[in-house]
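Worked Example 4.2. Consider the chain below.
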Amino acid sequence: MNSPSASASATSSETASDSALQAKGLEEAVQRDLGKTVEEFDAETKVSEEAAELREKLNGEGIKASASVKHGRAEIKVGQADEAKAKKIAETTAAKATAITTGIGKIKTVNDVYEEVLANVKPTELSRLTAIMNTGSGLQIMADGPASTDGKESASPGTSSAVMSLTLEEFADQAKGVQLVEGSGPAKTTAENDFFGAMGYMTDRSGIPTPSLRLCSSGFNAWSPSGGDAIITAGHCAEDGQTKVAAIAEQSAPNVLEAIGAPLGSFGFNQFGGPNNSGIPLEDLEGLSDEEALQILGNTEPGTDIAVIDEINPELNLPAVVSNWPAAGPREGSVKVTGVSKAVVGANACSSGRTTGWSCSEIIGEGLFFVLGYNNDQRAVLGYAAKNPNRTILNQGDSGGPVLVGSRAIGINSANSPGPDGVDGNFDDLAFYTSLSDVQSKGYIDGYQIKLFINAPELTSVANGAQVEPGAAISGTMADASSGTKVNVIVDGQVAETVAVDPAGGFSFTAPQALGEFSFTLEAVNGRDKSEQVSGNVVVAAAEPTPTTPEPTDTATPSESSGSSQDPSESASASATASTSASATEPTKDEPKRDDTLADTGVGSMPLIIAGGALALIGAAVLLLRRSARRHG
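Applying the procedure from the previous section yields the following structure tokens:
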């Protein structure tokens, strides 16, 4: 049994060769998969992040909005009634150049569509769902193919007589702006046999290596609530809690298993679908009364596909990076994880896994996708869909792997499925990613924190040894600072001040009032993650007084008078004036000046992801359906 060599720690002090390997791996993947330069990729990543932030701000103001990126430009779509308000809010954000457009009538969200489908479509039709996504063409439902209709005349969706009575075809016919075409086949889970991170891991129900080992990929290294090491991966890899982590899967190249490695850890929390791994039973829906079906649906809610691996082998080192699978091996090149974010339609996302390695693709939708669970039930997961040509982005065994936009974590590899031809280009498969922002906002793994690489802070307002005035602002900046990052100012080994880092990466703290040399150490922190410490020093000195040149003063010369004709009062006044003038000519000391420097979870024997249908309720949205044989992982 071969044990893996330890990975390097995540610190800011990387060697030139490390940096070159990382840059080369990223450049190759971006050029190969997206046909873009790293500079173009970085620029579009910034646009994507700004669009996601603006969408969240609009949602927080009660404005339903969707976001997408096309040709390097962000677009926010809102309802007509909200257009003016949305534009006003956009003017106050960093994404000032974002285009605000409107849909026809009131915009609807993915959840709106899902609720309408549950309320109006027959329970037996739900097994055909692959995904409900907000795409560049609007909201769409993806399904595995048209079912035959019974020819009955149905009421319009939303009326009481239409509750749970429609086929997907009838729903599409009666929904405004919906067109029914041939759609996609079923999605499949992406664990060839279930496994660990951007590097792989093995699982087995016995917990020890056996001939029936399954493979998955690890996602992101993390901190547990107690501060120990943990790993974020896909929930379905735990097989509803029935399987155990066996060991690291050692391989020098994607999809080439070479040895059983060192022990890894144990599954902690895991959820695949709704609470307690729940889903919509498929076999039992047929023949149920409406009341019985409604009771089942009422107890089933959209969920997630997430798990954590705890009790990590103490011999292992888990840095805040993911492998980008260079030719030299998975430990020879990596991408630092600097934050957790949301993605928008049109964003370029890169995923990593033990089967396909490191690859990048365009996100074409966000919303719900549906996967067949271990109890012949349908599990709904909130996340993203991306292009997956010939399954080169996501394939069996990649389950659990990390997905990033730029250096920000946005998802976990979950599933793949045949895709609808002709939509956003000709591609024959889709990749589905679990949304990490949804996992965080709903507290599925509350207390766990993805490990982040924190860049060291850098002084910008003064150089070491420079002179500053008492109380002057000393400012600096940080690269790729994630939300919530702060800088500790350490003096004599103790934290003297903690200051926030603004969205642009800037921070500042104040020099002391005491004169003399002021030595300090700066350290950036975010949760349990810390940067490399940086030392600095300045000399605090009072400002030099500025000499004042006295203004010329005319001194009155007493006029000579003869006899007693001189006016005594005039003489007294002249004397007082002379005294005042003499006093005014004394130089005064100036005050010191202050310068404020500021789905194919594909597991061979694992169940498939269920196919789904497409519905667009914004403008002329399209319902995409196509007959296709179901594939096993």
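The mean pLDDT is 74. Residues 38-60 form the longest helix (23 residues). Compare this with Example 4.1 before moving on.
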